[in-house]
């Protein structure tokens, strides 16, 4: 008998279950791209059969971190840059949970960059949504890791001397097994991509372009967007690492010029998830570890049985 | 000082097998009925560099180094560098012999490997040996090892010589070799052991007095390090998740846990940095698994933010801080108690954590268990403070000390059935941080992700009853007060049974003077107190482990009962004395500090000397390695 009966529950799920009954109105600025993430996530979760109580949404700090307040589920609003290590441990502790981590581009590609690299490398079975608005929003418009070279702000008065980070390429190099970019201006594609990301058995990274009309671009600047799977101008195989790499490189280059390329960039369905790898070498139990603490019949091992080496 | 004790030091280079050889020898002494204590000294280097392990063995209790030592086995350093003239590191080849002479007692024994060491390179060696009445045996251990096996087996030859000179039986040594060595290397080692033993008996006549002491244990003993104590305490508390990043000396605990957890169906994660390590422990614990992490000073600094998140989100975790000498990289392989204030106060906002500093390997076991109990019962981070000294020293402990029931309790956690009746807000969100219905101790039971009717938000922001961000002043005060109340509750809990106090007392019940210490300096103080009383002083001591919430009642009672006290700790700024004054607001004029921060732990004689100078009014200055800091008023 499970102590966690929300996990694997089979029932009809209404997307409104994910809307908090009181204070459902987000505090994001009018026209903010973050609304697009919330909306598509609320649509995607019921479609993949996940309920609020089997979903753990772990966020970082920034406007994106408020996502927890507006999506009704188990939530852990952590600290700046650290959503991934909290999220992946929760997944190891209780693999039946649908674990989603989310944060901004500063959170994920700046302060939390090391965790992003290593979580992708380990290929945990979880979804990571990066709200990429190319700016620090909540702290009022400073240059971020994805801001274009030459971007002027109060902290970069002469314009940034740095090229922006390449989130898709970094993700691929690090080891993510599902990599996509979508945009708040394209909610239908976003929903489909989030569904795929959640259903993918491995680390799924979604770079989500979320316009920041207050401090950076407004929605118009992400339109028109091009879906690379639907456009005839782009022909590459998402399963081919090399072709994916070239496509990502171009995508990152042209964003500076205002061309918004979105879609799936890399999908590797063969790579085992971290849980599978760890179980294969006998370093992770088959039964969810969290269940053991509720199992009254479990015979807990004792250090007393390890003493032979000390005699 | 134990009247009849052996303090045997094996010296050589890192990578020469000093550790494993000494471990087996210590066990042989323990099995023969003696109490043993080991101390290791090593450089931050993989190969070469002067290293030694000291084993103190006596029929009396030994829980610290002795003063100096009385038997040196100097092996050659296979990886010694060849210095140019005036190289700052000097001639490494002779260091296993030359570096160890200053602390060798009068009448002591020196066995050195003449195959690798040339005593004539050491200035005045013969004169010093004569002056100090040292009994010197230059034996070509290397040739003996080469003849029957490989050069590294000169360790075993050295053990054979030691046993012969001390008139010690070879049986236990051989039994342990059989357990530890594969067949292929066992045979040559056995041959070398016997040959060395017989050679000494046949070819040498000796007139030294030192013999192996004899003793008897009332029950079976095991040889345990402080790191073993921490790890075993964690395992017995049902901890099945650890995340870490290597850093000396914390790595010991991490390694032991990582070796056992898979067999216990647990998970060990070596991760990208210490921020991640602490954050993983938090994530696992949030999801319902008992979890820990830890590091040494520098890595612990990186854990500050997750530590604060654990305080604010009321997520139970246990962290280990294995101190080494700082600041910065400091002395990576040397002990110090300089991180106290760092551990107590790091991370923004008011500290709300439990901090214990055990003093012995057995206390490390007990207090790690208590740390888990406090963490999970009160939903608070608990930190176990050890140091390079305690983590690496081995001591015999009765095996029965570990014959205890496991405690896998997650603390106040609701089941799905209980959640049905728990408070929910109008949205159906479980009010995990309820104002109205806290237990008397300030703790509010939690739910776990995946439970029906349990969903809630947890955040590092100040939050309302459902866990949502809330900046209202009334709510702020209520939530802060409930969190801080847990510290009072924990103090009451810890004080409820004096029998299980974490504080340790030495010496007579009534005495004129006191010595106060904390953590791993306890052993040296215990022995110093014995000696001072033997010498006619009236002195007792307390070893304090409860640093937060502070052992206020016990320390107050102790200090009220003495005229003056010496506070002994391994740092330069008297951090523990400062804590005591801050917590108690009195006794400042009574507290003189004895400090040491040269990278080596206190020897009992240094404590005796410090006491005699300050308390007994002796006029002499202390040794160059310690410092007295006069009392200051509050």
From TrEMBL, chain A:
This protein's cofactor list reads: [4Fe-4S] cluster
Keywords from the named record: Oxidoreductase
Look up the domain of life of the source. Archaea
Would the keyword Disulfide bond turn up in this protein's UniProt record?
no
Gene Ontology MF terms in the entry: 2-oxoglutarate synthase activity; thiamine pyrophosphate binding
Q: Where is this region: Disordered?
A: 140-166
Picking any one GO biological process from the record gives:
cellular respiration
Q: Where is the Thiamine pyrophosphate enzyme TPP-binding domain?
A: 61-208
The EC number of this protein is 1.2.7.3
**Protein name (Swiss-Prot/TrEMBL):** 2-oxoglutarate synthase subunit KorB
UniProtKB/TrEMBL annotation, chain B:
Q: What is its EC number?
A: 1.2.7.3
For the biological process aspect of GO, one term held by this record is: response to oxidative stress
Which residue ranges does the record assign to the Pyruvate flavodoxin/ferredoxin oxidoreductase pyrimidine binding domain?
233-479
Region of interest called Disordered, as start-end residue ranges on this chain: 396-453
Entries under InterPro entries matching the protein = 2-oxoacid/accept_OxRdtase_asu, PFOR_II, Pyruvate:ferred/Flavod_OxRd, Pyrv/ketoisovalerate_OxRed_cat, Pyrv_Fd/Flavodoxin_OxRdtase_N, Pyrv_flavodox_OxRed_cen, THDP-binding, Transketo_C/PFOR_II
MF terms per GO, please? 2-oxoglutarate synthase activity
Q: Where is the composition biased (Basic and acidic residues)?
A: 433-444
List the catalytic activities from the record. Answer: 2 oxidized [2Fe-2S]-[ferredoxin] + 2-oxoglutarate + CoA = succinyl-CoA + 2 reduced [2Fe-2S]-[ferredoxin] + CO2 + H(+)
Complex formation: Heterotetramer of the KorA, KorB, KorC and KorD subunits.
Q: What is this protein called?
A: 2-oxoglutarate synthase subunit KorA
Native species? Halalkalicoccus paucihalophilus
């Amino acid at each position: 008998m499970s102590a966690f009966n929300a996990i694997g529950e089979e029932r009809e799920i209404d997307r409104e279950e994910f809307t908090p009954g009181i204070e459902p109105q987000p505090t994001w600025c009018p026209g903010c791209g973050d609304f697009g993430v919330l909306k598509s996530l609320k649509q995607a979760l019921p479609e993949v059969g996940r309920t609020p109580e089997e979903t753990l949404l772990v966020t970082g700090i920034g406007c994106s971190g408020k996502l927890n307040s507006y999506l009704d589920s188990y939530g852990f609003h952590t600290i700046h840059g650290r959503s991934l290590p909290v999220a992946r441990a929760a997944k190891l502790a209780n693999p039946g949970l649908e674990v989603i981590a989310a944060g901004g581009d500063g959170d994920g590609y700046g302060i939390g960059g090391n965790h992003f690299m290593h979580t992708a490398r380990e290929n945990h079975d979880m979804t990571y949504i990066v709200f990429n608005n190319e700016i620090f929003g909540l702290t009022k418009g400073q240059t971020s890791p994805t801001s274009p070279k030459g971007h002027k702000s109060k902290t970069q008065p002469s314009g940034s001397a740095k090229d922006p980070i390449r989130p898709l390429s970094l993700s691929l190099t690090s080891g993510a097994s599902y990599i996509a970019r979508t945009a708040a201006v394209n909610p239908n594609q976003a929903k489909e991509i989030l569904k795929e990301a959640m259903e993918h058995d491995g680390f799924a990274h979604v770079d989500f372009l979320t316009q920041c009309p207050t401090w950076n671009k407004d929605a118009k600047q992400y339109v028109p967007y091009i879906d690379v799977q639907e456009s005839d101008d782009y022909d590459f195989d998402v399963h081919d690492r090399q072709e994916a790499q070239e496509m990502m490189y171009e995508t990152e280059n042209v964003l500076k010029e205002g061309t918004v390329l979105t879609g799936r960039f890399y999908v590797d369905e063969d790579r085992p998830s971290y849980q599978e790898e760890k179980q294969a070498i006998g370093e992770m139990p088959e039964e969810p570890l969290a269940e053991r603490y509720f199992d009254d019949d479990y015979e807990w091992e004792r250090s007393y049985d390890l003493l032979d080496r000390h005699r | 000082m134990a009247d009849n004790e052996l303090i045997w030091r094996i010296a050589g280079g890192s990578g020469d097998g000093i550790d494993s050889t000494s471990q087996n020898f210590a066990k042989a002494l323990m099995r023969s009925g003696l109490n043993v204590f080991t101390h290791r000294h090593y450089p931050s280097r993989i190969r070469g560099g002067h290293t030694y392990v000291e084993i103190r063995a006596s029929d009396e209790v030994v829980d610290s180094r002795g003063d100096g030592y009385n038997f040196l086995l100097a092996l050659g350093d296979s990886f010694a560098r060849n210095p140019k003239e005036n190289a700052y590191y000097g001639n490494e080849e002779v260091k296993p012999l030359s570096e160890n002479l200053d602390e060798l007692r009068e009448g002591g024994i020196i066995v050195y490997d003449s195959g690798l060491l040339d005593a004539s390179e050491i200035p005045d060696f013969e004169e010093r040996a004569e002056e100090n009445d040292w009994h010197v045996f230059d034996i070509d251990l290397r040739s003996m090892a080469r003849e029957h096996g490989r050069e590294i087996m000169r360790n075993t030859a050295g053990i054979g010589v030691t046993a012969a000179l001390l008139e010690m039986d070879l049986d236990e040594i051989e039994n342990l070799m059989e357990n530890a060595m594969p067949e292929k290397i066992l045979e040559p080692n056995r041959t070398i052991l016997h040959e060395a033993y017989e050679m000494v008996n046949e070819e040498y006549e000796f007139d030294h007095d030192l013999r192996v002491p004899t003793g008897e244990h009332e029950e079976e003993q095991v040889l345990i390090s402080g790191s073993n104590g921490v790890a075993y305490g964690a395992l017995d508390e049902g901890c099945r998740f650890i995340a870490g990043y290597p850093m000396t000396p914390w790595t010991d605990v991490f390694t032991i846990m990582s070796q056992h957890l898979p067999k216990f169906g647990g998970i060990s994660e070596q991760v990208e940095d210490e921020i991640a390590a602490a954050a993983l422990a938090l994530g696992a614990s949030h999801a319902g698994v008992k979890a820990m992490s830890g590091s040494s000073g520098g890595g612990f600094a990186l854990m500050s933010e997750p530590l604060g998140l654990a305080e604010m989100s009321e997520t139970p975790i246990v962290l280990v801080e294995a101190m080494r000498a700082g600041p910065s990289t400091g002395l990576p392989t040397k002990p110090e108690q300089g991180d106290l204030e760092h551990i107590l106060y790091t991370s923004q906002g008011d500290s709300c954590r439990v901090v214990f500093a055990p003093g012995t390997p057995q206390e490390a076991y007990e207090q790690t268990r208590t740390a888990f109990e406090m963490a999970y019962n009160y939903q608070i981070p608990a930190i176990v403070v050890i140091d390079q000294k305690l983590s690496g020293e081995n001591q015999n402990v009765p095996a029965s000390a570990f014959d205890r029931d496991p405690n896998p309790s997650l603390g106040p956690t609701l089941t799905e059935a209980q959640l049905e009746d728990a408070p929910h807000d109008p949205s159906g969100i479980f009010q995990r941080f309820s104002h109205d219905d806290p237990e008397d101790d300030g703790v509010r039971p939690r739910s776990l992700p995946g439970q029906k009717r349990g969903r809630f938000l947890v955040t590092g922001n100040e939050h309302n009853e459902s866990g949502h961000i809330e900046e209202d002043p009334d709510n702020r005060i209520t939530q802060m007060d409930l969190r801080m109340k847990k510290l009072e509750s924990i103090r009451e809990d810890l004080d409820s049974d004096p029998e299980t106090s974490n504080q340790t007392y030495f010496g007579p019940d009534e005495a004129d003077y006191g010595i106060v210490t904390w953590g791993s300096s306890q052993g040296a103080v215990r022995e110093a107190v014995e000696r001072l009383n033997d010498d006619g002083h009236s002195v007792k001591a307390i070893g304090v482990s409860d640093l937060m919430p502070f052992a206020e009642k016990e320390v107050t009672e102790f200090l009220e009962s003495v005229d003056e006290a010496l506070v002994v700790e391994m740092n330069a700024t008297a951090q523990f004395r400062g804590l005591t004054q801050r917590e108690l607001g009195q006794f400042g004029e009574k507290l003189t500090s004895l400090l040491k921060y040269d990278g080596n732990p206190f020897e009992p004689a240094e404590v005796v000397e410090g006491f005699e100078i300050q308390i007994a009014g002796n006029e002499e200055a202390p040794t160059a390695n310690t410092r007295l800091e006069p009392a200051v008023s509050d």
